[in-house]
């Protein structure tokens, strides 16, 4: 039978929007030495905004229409930002078919002009596109996320997307540290400058800020860290369900997260307030002391 202390901790956590799948997950959380966080949509708000647009053929509306058209097929936070930007300008997304997600990189599909793709520099490189176009040089400056649109090796343009750390992220990480968590790392598929900027805002050491990671890289990194001590992984489920499943404690940002993520996880956060997670962690430690 489950000790009363655990039952009461589980229900207290649930009242704060932190759902444990069972007492074992609560006990495991108390023993976690390292927390690994996904960036986009987890440590950041996921409510990103498009800040700059560069269309290489000059027709910005046509460019955004194609970009929004392909991003209409993606569930990534970045895709949402692009759709909102097009809508705000009164631009209708162009029809795009046969889309295939490229986890950690972007998306490919077909529009009336042929095969198109949208994604980060790693996808651009894979397509043989040269992202060194002079018109794009200014985009790199702000440590923001870059999204390129192209047709095969031909680059059609790019946008920058800005996303901010959640207000609750810094206090939550501080509370986890104060609560005995020895190491906190960030894992992201985004570019290093963006990762380092958000990491610095949150007080993470540069060596604990891992960028340019594909979903499989995240799983390998999670496995390597878990070999050295109990590990929790916190993600929103977009491209990180496997890492959630591999961690000793997988924690899914539940409200906006995907069904797959909730299945892979041991803990679901119904609120996006990361301080609720820190609170649940304190609760788990207190409970572990009581039942020991
Ligand atoms: P993270 O949550 O750390 O950003 P993801 O694996 O979800 O990790 O995404 C990694 C990167 O892949 C993003 O930063 C972005 O550059 C790129 N990406 C993923 N999906 C898309 C998309 N639909 N459109 C454009 N870029 C994308
Ligand atoms: Mg993410």
From TrEMBL:
Taxonomy, superkingdom: Bacteria
Compartments (UniProt record): Cell membrane; Membrane
Family according to the record: Belongs to the cation transport ATPase (P-type) (TC 3.A.3) family. Type IB subfamily.
Protein name per its UniProtKB record: Heavy metal translocating P-type ATPase
Origin organism lineage: Bacteria, Pseudomonadati, Pseudomonadota, Alphaproteobacteria, Rhodobacterales
